[in-house]
Amino acid sequence: MTQSAENPKPAEVQTIDPVVAPAETAKQEQSQNDPQQAVEQATDVVTESKAPAQDVAASEQKSEVAEDPVPAPVPDAPAPVDGVKDESVKEDPAAEEAAAETVTEPDPAVDDATNVEEDMTEEAAYLAKIRVSGTEGQKKILAAIELYCERFRPRAPVNGTEGVKWQYEFLLHALKLINSEYDLFKAGWNVLLVFFKENHGRSSVSNTSPISDGPASRFGPYWERGEETWAAYKNIFELLRSTRDPATRKMNVKNIVLERLGPGLITEDGLRNLRRFYQ
User: What pLDDT tens digit does each residue of the chain (279 aa) get?
Assistant: First the structure.
């Protein structure tokens, strides 16, 4: 008995549909159906990827510009015209008063302490130290007497008008010092005494100085500021000359009547300063 060959029945293949999110599925289907929209979406992606790079480039360019600003041009000031007053410039009344002051404030002398010579006298070394590290008052009175000596240096051409002006100028500096507080007076008066001891010179013509007896009394006939001020000027110089040496100071001051030094010009406080200093 012949058995017929039976063809095997093919197995059934099950197909599983991919799981796609509803929104993405709809978007994909819409993109497939609309080619133009697909191109626009691709363009948007490229644009978004380039935007950060463009922002960085713009930021760098802005930073470079900020680091190197171009200054605005400054217009040139108009040149002053002779004889025409600039009304835009306001004058300071206080500056006008300072300019009208008759007393010249000398610049404090400055000396380099490293240049002090070893063979200096004790007085010269002291004055060099004052120029460097003295108080403001000490430097001012030292500069005032040095300016006086520079103006009246031997053989310097000085007329009577200039002479009395400079003598009166130093008198004002001395009176201001005498009438100040005692500590300020003492510090400055010591400077003057040391200067007179170092620079007084001698009576001979070859060794004289502007603060010697004769030269300091010049220009009396040209003095027009009253006899009291002229007497005070001469008396203060005489007091400094007579008491410049500490060894003979106590004895020599007895020959000077301090009350008559400068009546009307030296205050009661100034007189007390002198008495206290020479007591």
Answer: 444 444 444 444 444 444 444 444 444 444 444 444 443 444 443 344 444 444 434 444 444 444 444 555 544 544 444 444 444 444 444 444 433 445 556 655 544 444 545 688 999 999 999 999 999 999 999 999 999 999 998 888 999 999 999 999 999 999 999 999 999 999 999 999 999 999 986 655 566 788 987 778 889 899 999 999 999 999 999 999 999 999 999 999 999 999 999 999 999 999 999 999 999
Give residue 263's identity as a one-letter amino acid code. P
> How far, in Å, CA of 58 to CA of 65, rounded?
11
Tell me the C-alpha distance between 189 and 178, whole Å: 8
- CA-based nearest residue to 222, from 158, 149, 130: 158
Structure tokens at 24: 């993405």
Residue type, 57: A
> In this structure, are residues 273 and 185 in contact, taking their beta carbons and an 8 Å threshold?
yes
Which phi and psi (to 5°) does residue 68 adopt?
-125, 70
188 vs 1, 178, 179, 182, 229, CA distance in Å? 157, 9, 12, 10, 21
**Amino acid in position 209:** S
CA distances from 210 to 135, 201, 233 (A): 25, 9, 14
For residue 101, what are the CA distances in angstroms to 32, 98, 163, 169, 172? 100, 5, 18, 11, 12
Within 10 angstroms of residue 241's Cβ, the number of other Cβ atoms is: 18
Cβ–Cβ contacts within 10 Å for residue 193, how many? 20
135, 109 Cβ separation under 8 angstroms: no
Amino acid letter, 224: E
Please compute, for residue 50, the number of CA atoms within 13 A of its CA located in the half-sphere on the CB side: 6
